[in-house]
């Protein structure tokens, strides 16, 4: 693994009253240390996972909307300035890698199409041989993982499960495992997937409760809610729908 610590330069932050510094986990963050080659960020929607992973990616020099240090496509979504206030500690430093942002993957695929049109080189060769637009969403994600990942590098993935079937999520676990066992890759992954989170020996950081804290796999909501749902589906749904009916019953 390469990235050891992310430190936030708190004394340089102009105001904690505005996004992204007002997000509770960012407000409290001082330093995050990585001990394993695979780290997961989990937490409720809106808890700040994407904001932090995007800032780490930007501080490495990756395109904030997804891609590597070479990719320079225009992102349409607003990005935070958090990266300007992060210090990354490496041992050793790597610049190779990729930032997968599920949200902007479509734009990234269009950018590759444009590069392919404008360049004599076969740009698609690193992405499975054909345009990512000509593959299904899930196929294109997996093509990226299989073909573009591999060299010594750091891979930041924001909700990679977004397009992947459960079987393909298992395939991604295998790809991560193969890359990690060679000791050449580090992964930081924001996810809601109980399958991905089950990766062995990963460190999981929970963004709930307003502070980033380590959590065991079995203690995550993702594990517990999924397990409970699968084991008690009928009862849980009955309870859930009855509560809803009772709440909306008067109308
Ligand atoms: N560009 C923005 N401007 C202002 N607030 C923002 C912006 N982007 C995100 N936020 C807010 O910051 C908070 C954290 O958002 P973020 O996208 O990091 O959450 P997340 O944990 O990745 O959520 P999810 O699991 O839904 O992807 C949310 O409350 C969100 O509304």
Topology:
Elements: E1 3-8, H1 24-28, E2 31-33, E3 38-42, H2 49-60, E4 86-90, E5 97-101, H3 105-118, H4 137-148, E6 153-158, H5 166-181, E7 185-190, H6 194-197, E8 203-206, E9 213-215, H7 221-231, H8 233-248
Helix pairs in contact: 4-5, 7-8
Bound molecules: adenosine-5'-triphosphate.
Adenosine-5'-triphosphate binds next to helix 2.
Protein name: AAA family ATPase
Keywords: ATP-binding, Cell membrane, Ion transport, Iron, Iron transport, Membrane, Nucleotide-binding, Transport
Membrane topology: Peripheral membrane protein
Characterise the protein shown here.
- The chain has 251 residues and is an alpha/beta fold.
- The model has no long low-confidence stretch (mean pLDDT 86).
- It contains eight helices and nine strands.
- The longest helix is centred in the C-terminal third of the chain and has 16 residues, at 166-181.
- Helix content is 36%, strand content 17%.
- A hairpin with a 6-residue loop joins strand 8 and strand 9.
- The strands form two sheets. Strands 5-6-7-3-8-9 form a six-stranded mixed beta sheet, sandwiched between helices. Strands 2-1-4 form a three-stranded antiparallel beta sheet, with helices on one face.
- It is globular and about 65 Å long.
- The protein has a single domain (3-219), classed as P-loop containing nucleotide triphosphate hydrolases (Rossmann fold).
- The termini are far apart.
- The protein binds adenosine-5'-triphosphate.
- Adenosine-5'-triphosphate (ATP) is lined by residues 19, 23, 43, 45-51, 78.
- This is AAA family ATPase.
- GO terms for molecular function: ATP binding; ATP hydrolysis activity.
- Pfam families: AAA_21, AAA_23.
- Residues 3-234 form the ABC transporter domain.
- Keywords: ATP-binding, Cell membrane, Ion transport, Iron, Iron transport, Membrane, Nucleotide-binding, Transport.
């Amino acid at each position: 693994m390469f990235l050891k610590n992310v430190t936030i330069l708190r004394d340089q932050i102009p105001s904690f009253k505005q996004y992204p510094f007002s997000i509770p986990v960012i407000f409290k963050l001082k330093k995050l240390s990585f001990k394993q080659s695979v780290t997961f960020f989990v937490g409720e929607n809106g808890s700040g996972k994407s904001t932090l992973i995007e800032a780490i990616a930007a501080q490495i020099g990756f395109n904030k909307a997804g891609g590597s240090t070479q990719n320079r496509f225009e992102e349409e979504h607003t990005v935070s300035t958090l990266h300007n206030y992060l210090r990354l500690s490496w041992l050793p430093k790597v610049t190779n890698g990729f930032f997968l942002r599920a949200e902007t993957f479509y734009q990234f695929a269009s950018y590759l199409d444009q590069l392919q049109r404008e360049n004599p080189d076969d740009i698609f060769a690193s992405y499975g041989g054909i345009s990512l637009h000509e593959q299904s969403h899930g196929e294109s994600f997996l093509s990226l993982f299989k073909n573009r990942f591999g060299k010594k590098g750091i891979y930041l993935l924001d909700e990679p499960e977004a397009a992947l079937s459960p079987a393909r999520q298992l395939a991604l676990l295998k790809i991560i495992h193969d890359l990690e066992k060679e000791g050449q890759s580090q992964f930081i992954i924001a996810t809601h997937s109980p399958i991905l989170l089950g990766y062995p020996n990963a460190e999981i950081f929970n963004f709930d409760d307003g502070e980033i804290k380590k959590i065991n796999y079995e203690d995550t909501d993702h594990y517990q809610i999924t397990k409970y749902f699968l084991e008690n589906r009928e009862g849980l749904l009955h309870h859930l729908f009855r509560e809803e009916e009772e709440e909306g019953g008067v109308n």
